[in-house]
Amino acid sequence: MNLKTLSATALMTLTALASCNEAPKSAASDPEATPQTAALLTNLTTLAARGTMVGHQDALAYGIGWYDEAGRCDFRDACGHYPALFGWEVGELELGGDHSLDSVYFNRIRDYMKQVYALGGVNTMSWHARNPLTGGDAWDVSSAEVVGSILPGGEKNAVYEQWLDRLADFFKSLKADDGTLIPVIFRPFHELTGSWFWWGRDLCTPEQYIALWRHTADGLRTRGVHNLLWAYSAAGYTSVGELEERYPGDAYVDIVGFDAYDMLTGDFSDDVRARTALLREFAAAHHKLPALTETGSEGLKNPAWFNEVLYPLLQGQGLSYVMFWRNAHDIAGHFYAAWPGHASAPDMTRLVERDDILTLDEIGSLYQ
To answer: Which of 11, 45, 144, 212 is deepest in the core (most CB within 10 A)?
Structure first.
């Protein structure tokens, strides 16, 4: 057992003892949330006082030079630890197909999520839904009528209801060997303050966005889906008011966050600091968990990026987790976590060995 593991074990013991009397209690937004889902939120709230969980998108599905190979994970193979959080994508499930827009079969995603749950990790799911009005992809912003068209009374409402049927069936199929439903942090309609998705700021009114979120949540709940924590995730903003404007309400959100990528333009750190301060204010006002829901620097051109750039932005901020985007197996240079042999691997290893950066082996039991 290394010093970090020993320290983490001691901290988990103290945290568990303190949680009996002092830890903040967080009720899931869904009043019918499964016991494991409600426990996950409570434990994530307690865990955030210890440090920030680190996550990676599609970590078990593929990586640099490989696809769907049992036991492989770029993140673990580079630093010796699994991430605590595993991100998945459900985009194109709504069409009734067998694989996601990232070419991962949904039956395999189900298997991966089951594996993560068995290991004690956390699953989160994004949804780059197709454009239901035009038939284009999620980035098709050719019409500002899309959201209105799928709300009750709209011309595409029946299509959207079928999409919700398929989503509900998938979420209800996520079960452990003992039949327990696997909790998921669901992050739909993300980067809402941007305008590059059909649900973005310039493509619908605040009222339409809120109605879309609530209709989706209510629709899944009435279909019997109660294993979701809901994550409300923005892009850029300069005031708390921008986060408030499209906020669906406390009864529909559990986690609040934002996505930010380092494009090496020089203003990344200042931007993230400013957004984090506003996010923390917003999260405190609504008693929600804050998180950095997507981040990274494509291709990791700075081999010291994790500690020189990212860690100072996480330290002491109380963020529940940070999620690195995917390591594409089929797009050269499109990766956001280190992989074995890459120049940034030692730096990522140094990051995850910090006491306040939490990997899978340090988060304890989150579902009890």
So the answer is: 212
pTM to 2 decimals? Answer: 0.93
- Alpha-carbon span 284 to 256, nearest angstrom: 10
Asked about 207 being catalytic, the answer comes back as: no
pLDDT in tens, 177-197: 999 999 999 999 999 999 999
362 is catalytic: no
**Alpha-helical segments (H) within 287-363:** 305, 311-314, 345-352
The alpha helices in 20-62, defined as continuous H runs, are 35-47
| Helix (H), strand (E) at residue 271 | helix 268-286
| Element containing residue 78 per DSSP (H, E) | helix 74-79
Among residues 4, 154, 128, the alpha carbon closest in space to that of 58 is found at 128
Using one digit for the tens of pLDDT, what is the confidence trace for 71-110? 999 999 999 999 999 999 999 999 999 999 999 999 999 9
pLDDT band at 299 (very low <50, low <70, confident <90, very high): very high
Residues 122, 186: contact at Cβ < 8 Å? no
Question: Of 294, 298, 353, 362, which one is the catalytic site residue?
Answer: 294
Catalytic residue among 92, 191, 242, 362: 191
Q: Are 87 and 57 in contact, with CB atoms under 8 Å apart?
A: yes
The tokens describing 26, both together, are 């967080």
CB count in 10 Å sphere of residue 155: 12
Inter-CA distances, 88 with 70, 102, 254, 363, Å: 17, 10, 18, 20
CB 288 within 8 A of CB 251: no
